[in-house]
Structures are given as structure tokens and as C-alpha cells.
């Protein structure tokens, strides 16, 4: 009115909806939503206090690197800790599958901790009851369900010999559901008036974390059971893609790839894809002849190095397609060729790792941007948190498990015979008669 600009308070979404519908000002849940929207700035300030990755490596090393350009300094620090992580991983691989499973568990817990810590910022802001305890309780119950199922599937024959363990196997799902119900009732009883929206948001937050971290880590351990190669090769592909994309982008990157990750470029993406396919083929070929790598874990543990090599890792002979047969005949060359099926599987895995795998990283980038944080943590200098490094690994592990069940896995003959041997005699006779009829119908006997 007098030339002075009057700044109005921003109108929240709930207020806009009320004004549009000419509704009276609400109290209870709608006012709860208003307060939730107004507290966004306070929450952003809280998330800024979360640990963030840096290039600091201690006073002695930092002084040595102080003269480097920040871009090159980051390259050196990332390179050093990439070598450290790959070396530690190689050491754990040499210790055997049990150590690898323990590693997956450790990574799972740390990744869950890093994601749930963002939710804890809300917890600390409003002092919501039981959020931290309930989050870890649901982590325990989900691990009990998923990994208990895995134990039942792979070692059920052995576990059934113990009466107590037999009860745990027989009622595993009932016990798992009972544990979840305890947590569910616990959450409902913890609800407090005025905090409903925030508490239900954190409840959903916890379950999304469990879906992303626990279920996918369970699938990764199932891959280990199918043979270490199904774990090592995909993990190595993601590492190769990550390193080579970074190096190609660092050296040649000019064209932005996606807005969620401004540092990602098309040059890095394409260079990483070609490198991953080539690296995957070389690594797969190097591991093909090693029983400890290719045998399913249940066979390897019972037969050691004398286990039966699965068909995917044995050399096969096939004929060239029709359009190639005639040229080969004219050149007086064989019309058949030999190949290892797993090398073709390796190409499929490497294409997923290099084309779709990075979208796990893009998803994580969007997640971090939503909460205005740079990294999930600061446990790895130059890299950030474990979740910053394993976001693509989780997606890759899920794809490998789906791939195995779709194209690779076949019923285990020894396990089928063991299961049949545990049945009552009349059931065994029923199976025998039914199988005999099937074989007669097929003309095999």
C-alpha cells in the first residue's frame, strides 16, 4: 500500500484444499498434516547433521594430498579405498562361503542402519516413542523368516533329526507371523495423539527399508547356495562397471546422463558398459573349471572337489544356424562349434549390470536429494556409506536370483531321494507306482 512489499506466509497443501472446498479449519488429523508440512525445514536441518562422506584420510595423508586439485584428490582417495575394499573382499572369498554369508549379513545391518538413521532424524525431532527399537525388532523378525526359510530348504533333512529343531521347522512360518504380530501390536499401542501421520510414515519407512535391504540380501545368499560363481561374477561386474564408468567419465565425460546424478555422463555409461561385458567374459572363463566356484553349495559341502559340475559350466557342441552352415561347408570348415553356456549367461548378466544396474544408484541419488544429503554415511573415505556402494549390488543380486530360477535351476536329485526316504512306506509305494505308470506311458520301461 505504501510501496513496501508485504510477504505472506506460504500456504500449506492442507490449507489450500480447505480453502478450495470452503471447509472450516480442522483440528486433529488435518492440523497434524499442517504441522507436518510446516516442520519440513526443521527436518532438513536435522538431516544435515547426519554423517557425510569426505576425502579426509588422517592428518599425515591429508597433508601429503593437500596440494592436489580437489577433483584429483577425490580420484586418488577413491582409488586407494577401492583397492583396499577389493583386497579385503578377495581375502573373504578365499575363506569360503560361510564368510561370504557373514559379510552379506554385516553389509545388510550397516545398510539398514544408514537408511534408518534418516528416519531417526524425525524420531529425534519429535521424540516419537519406540521407533528405534521397533525398527530393529522388525529387522530381526524379517531375518528370522527369510533366512529360516533358506535353512529349511537347504538343510531341512539334517535339521529334522533334532526334535527341537524339527518343531522350529514345522512351525517356522507360524512362529515368524507370531513375531511380526507382536511388533504390529506394539506399534499400535505406541501411537500417540498428534503424531499419527509421522508415526505411520516411519512405520512405512521401516517396511520399505526391510523390503529393499533384507529381502534382497536374502536373495543374494540364495545365489551363494547355487554356487559361488553366481555371487562373485555379478558382484565383480558391478564393481567393474562402477570403476570404469567413473574413469571414463572422469577422462572423457562431457554429456550429462541423468539429472538425478549430475556427475554421471553418457561417455562414462557407455565406456563402463563395454568394459563390464568384456571383463565379465574374462572372469567367467577363468572360473569355469573350478569346482569350488561352480558347484552348488549343498553338493560341494558333501562331495568336496569331486562334486558333479553343472551342465552350464561344461563345454557343449552345437550346429551353426542355417545361414552360416553353407558358407562353412564351402570353406570346408566344421559346421558345429563348441561353447560354454555360462559365457552366454555372463553376457546377459553383464548387460543388466551395466545398463539397468546403475538405476539402483540413480534411485539412491534421488533418495538422497529428497532429504538434501550428499551420502548415506562416512564409513568409506571418498565413497560415503556402505549404501552408497551397494545400492546397485542389491538390485543386481535380485536379478541374478530371478535369472537362476528362470533359466538355470533344476530339481536336485539327491535331495529328492532324501525327501522320499523320509516318507512313510505307503507314501513311498504310491510314488513308486505313479512313477512306474508315467515311465510306461512314455515308453521308457
From TrEMBL:
Pathway entry: Phospholipid metabolism; CDP-diacylglycerol biosynthesis; CDP-diacylglycerol from sn-glycerol 3-phosphate: step 3/3; Lipid metabolism
Listed InterPro entries: PC_trans, PC_Trfase_euk
UniProt entry keywords in alphabetical sequence: Lipid biosynthesis, Lipid metabolism, Membrane, Nucleotidyltransferase, Phospholipid biosynthesis, Phospholipid metabolism, Transferase, Transmembrane, Transmembrane helix
Keyword Ribonucleoprotein: no
Transmembrane segments: 75-93, 99-123, 135-158, 170-190, 202-221, 227-248, 269-288, 342-364
Membrane topology recorded in Swiss-Prot or TrEMBL: Multi-pass membrane protein
Superkingdom to which the source organism belongs: Eukaryota
Top EC class of this enzyme: transferase
The EC number(s) this enzyme carries: 2.7.7.41
Name of the protein this chain belongs to: Phosphatidate cytidylyltransferase
Amino acid at each position: 500500500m505504501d510501496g513496501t512489499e508485504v510477504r505472506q506466509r506460504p500456504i500449506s497443501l492442507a490449507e489450500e484444499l480447505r480453502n478450495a472446498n470452503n471447509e472450516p479449519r480442522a483440528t486433529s488429523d488435518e492440523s497434524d498434516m499442517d504441522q507436518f508440512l510446516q516442520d519440513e525445514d526443521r527436518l532438513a536441518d536435522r538431516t544435515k547433521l547426519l554423517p557425510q562422506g569426505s576425502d579426509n584420510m588422517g592428518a599425515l595423508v591429508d597433508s601429503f594430498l593437500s596440494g592436489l586439485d580437489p577433483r584429483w584428490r577425490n580420484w586418488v582417495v577413491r582409488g586407494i579405498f577401492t583397492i583396499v575394499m577389493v583386497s579385503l573382499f578377495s581375502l573373504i572369498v578365499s575363506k569360503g562361503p560361510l564368510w561370504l554369508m557373514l559379510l552379506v549379513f554385516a553389509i545388510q545391518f550397516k545398510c539398514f542402519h544408514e537408511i534408518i538413521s534418516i528416519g531417526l532424524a524425525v524420531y529425534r525431532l519429535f521424540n516419537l516413542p519406540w521407533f528405534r527399537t521397533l525398527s530393529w525388532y522388525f529387522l530381526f523378525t524379517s531375518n528370522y523368516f527369510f533366512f529360516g526359510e533358506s535353512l529349511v530348504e537347504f538343510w531341512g533333512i539334517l535339521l529334522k533329526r533334532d526334535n527341537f529343531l524339527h518343531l522350529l521347522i514345522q512351525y517356522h512360518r507360524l512362529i515368524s507371523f507370531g513375531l511380526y504380530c507382536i511388533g504390529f501390536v506394539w506399534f499400535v499401542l505406541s501411537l500417540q495423539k498428534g503424531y499419527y501421520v509421522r508415526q505411520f510414515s516411519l512405520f512405512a519407512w521401516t517396511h520399505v527399508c526391510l523390503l529393499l535391504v533384507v529381502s534382497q540380501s536374502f536373495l543374494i545368499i540364495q545365489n551363494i547356495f547355487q554356487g559361488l560363481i553366481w555371487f562373485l561374477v555379478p558382484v565383480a561386474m558391478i564393481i567393474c562397471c562402477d570403476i570404469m564408468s567413473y574413469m571414463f567419465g572422469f577422462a572423457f565425460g562431457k554429456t550429462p546422463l541423468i539429472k538425478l546424478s549430475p556427475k554421471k555422463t553418457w561417455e562414462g555409461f557407455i565406456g563402463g558398459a563395454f568394459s563390464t561385458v568384456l571383463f565379465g567374459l574374462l572372469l567367467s572363463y577363468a572360473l569355469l573349471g573350478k569346482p569350488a566356484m561352480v558347484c552348488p553349495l549343498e553338493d560341494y559341502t558333501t562331495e568336496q572337489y569331486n562334486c558333479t559340475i553343472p551342465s552350464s559350466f561344461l563345454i557343449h557342441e552345437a550346429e551353426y544356424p542355417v545361414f552360416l552352415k553353407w558358407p562353412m561347408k564351402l570353406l570346408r570348415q566344421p559346421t558345429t562349434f563348441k561353447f560354454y553356456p555360462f559365457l552366454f549367461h555372463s553376457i546377459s548378466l553383464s548387460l543388466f549390470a551395466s545398463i539397468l544396474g546403475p538405476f539402483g544408484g540413480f534411485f539412491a541419488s534421488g533418495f538422497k536429494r529428497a532429504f538434501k544429503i550428499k551420502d548415506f554415511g562416512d564409513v568409506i573415505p571418498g565413497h560415503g556409506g556402505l549404501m552408497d556402494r551397494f545400492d546397485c549390488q542389491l538390485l543386481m543380486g535380485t536379478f541374478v536370483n530371478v535369472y537362476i530360477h528362470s533359466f538355470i535351476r533344476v530339481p536336485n536329485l539327491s535331495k529328492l531321494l532324501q525327501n522320499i526316504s523320509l516318507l512313510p512306506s505307503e507314501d513311498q509305494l504310491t510314488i513308486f507306482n505313479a512313477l512306474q505308470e508315467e515311465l510306461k506311458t512314455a515308453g521308457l520301461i
